[in-house]
Design a protein that fits this description.
The protein is mostly helical. Helices cover about 50% and strands about 0% of the residues.
């Protein structure tokens, strides 16, 4: 590393960079990055505790991620690597629970899946060793077949008009020497409706697998990655099922219109048009299906970044929380919000903190959902750094020192007189010396 010119400060090496980006090496060469393994983590100039003059302090030691990159959630995986060593098993478990809750649409509400997620959040950090974990897993396994069937039945009600249980061979293009131009449309609609029902069942199965992984494994980085992959697959299958269902219903409507317009004339032309419609629909369905995986992975990264902002806050600008802000009203509201997931009461908590003379802007803005870096609104989950700080669930990850009030000056007793100046004492001593005249200077 070196200087660019003579007036610019020294720049540290980049530790983590977004995928498919380029960087300039110290020699001036432009290096394109293909994967994260191409640039392994390296030490920066800040590891010795020295910082170049004029350099902003909103960085974590050893990593070149500035505050704006963190707040804009440019690379959630790099954010995890940045603070992963500081996260406790409880926080890892709460992150995994928040990820599992993203699969809410894949499993029916009546399944014991959701009470298990609630229990895992309340027992975060101690789930793997809890005596009730085995019984919870057994309950989930017992109810899994019924949940998968319930998901399929719910999807069947949506596509029932497309005849999902019909035999595709029953829709013949030629029957009794007559051409049926709507047959290709009805056949494709029936096939897509059946596929939608099957995918809905697979999505429910993946959602339950995510919950099983959440309860069975020890919290950590690898555990969170496995849960994320399962949830991505579950949400992709659920979206794929909805896409097939929409296509089936559209083809059914097109088939009805083709049957109504059939007058027995130009049936071959109408049949060719119907077949062309089915072909173009299949191509469009394939394109949309290929984009779902990328879309779900992007949604997972965005959600993970917002979860990290909720649990960690802003590590580049440490916040403070004074003990005297924990009044009875503040503690009661915080306990209720955590126990009931009543995050709609956070603005009320902000007012209670103001009554307790809280002047930390980061705390108040987070409670009110007015943070500048969250234009989409707050994403509150259990493990919120403000609630944890109030309830003292765990030591704060990044916290500034509390401000100690200045001590009042000691009061002097009225009987105590101030000592005379030093020069006055010397003059008195010189005047009282026997046989020696006082010094003229004195």
């Amino acid at each position: 590393m070196g200087f660019v010119g003579t007036s610019q400060p020294k720049r540290p090496c980049v530790t983590y960079e977004p995928d498919n980006h380029a960087r300039v090496t110290p020699g001036g060469a432009l290096v394109m990055r293909s994967s994260i393994s191409d640039f392994p983590p390296r030490q920066t100039d800040y590891d010795d505790g020295k910082r170049p003059a004029g350099r902003s302090r909103n960085r974590i030691q050893g990593h070149r991620m500035i505050e704006s990159d963190w707040l804009k959630v440019k690379d959630p995986d790099a954010m995890l690597r940045l603070i992963g060593e500081r996260l406790s098993p409880r926080r890892w478990q709460l992150l995994a629970c928040a990820v599992v809750r993203r699969a809410v649409e894949t499993v029916p509400v009546s399944h014991p899946f959701w009470p298990a997620v609630e229990w895992a959040e309340l027992q975060a950090g101690n789930v793997a060793n809890h005596p009730q974990t085995a019984a919870t897993l057994a309950t989930i396994a017992e109810a899994t077949p019924a949940a998968i069937q319930a998901a399929r039945d719910a999807q069947r009600l949506i596509v029932v008009s497309a005849d999902p249980d019909a035999d595709p061979n029953a829709f013949r293009e030629t029957s009794d020497r007559k051409t049926n131009p709507s047959a290709p449309l009805f056949r494709a609609a029936s096939l897509h409706a059946g596929t939608a029902i099957q995918l809905a069942g697979e999505a429910a199965e993946q959602g339950i697998a995510a919950m099983t992984c959440l309860l069975h494994d020890t919290p950590g980085a690898d555990h969170l990655q496995r849960v994320r992959q399962i949830v991505i697959e579950a949400t992709r299958l659920r979206s794929h099922a909805s896409l097939y269902a929409t296509t089936a219903l559209d083809l059914k409507v097109r088939g009805d219109h083709a049957a109504d317009r059939n007058t027995g004339r130009n049936v071959n032309i109408q049949l060719a048009a119907a077949q062309d419609t089915v072909t173009r629909t299949e191509e469009h369905l394939g394109y949309r299906g290929n984009d779902l995986q990328e879309a779900k992975e992007k949604a997972d990264r965005k959600a993970m970044g917002r979860f990290l902002l909720e649990i960690v806050g802003n590590p580049m600008t440490p916040y403070r929380f004074e003990p005297h802000w924990r009044t009875d009203t503040v503690m009661g509201l915080a306990h209720a919000i955590y126990a009931e997931r009543a995050f709609d009461r956070l603005p009320i908590l902000a007012d209670a903190l103001l009554d307790a003379d809280c002047d930390e802007e980061a705390v108040l803005r987070h409670c009110r959902g007015t943070e500048v870096h969250a234009p989409d609104g707050p994403c509150h989950i259990r493990g919120c750094w403000v609630i944890d700080q109030i309830l003292e669930q765990e030591p704060a990850l990044f916290q500034a020192k509390t401000i100690k009030p200045p001590k009042p000056p000691a009061r002097r007793s009225r009987s105590t007189r101030p000592a005379p100046p030093t020069g006055f004492l010397r003059l008195l001593e010189a005047m009282n010396r026997p046989g020696q005249p006082p010094n003229e200077d004195e």
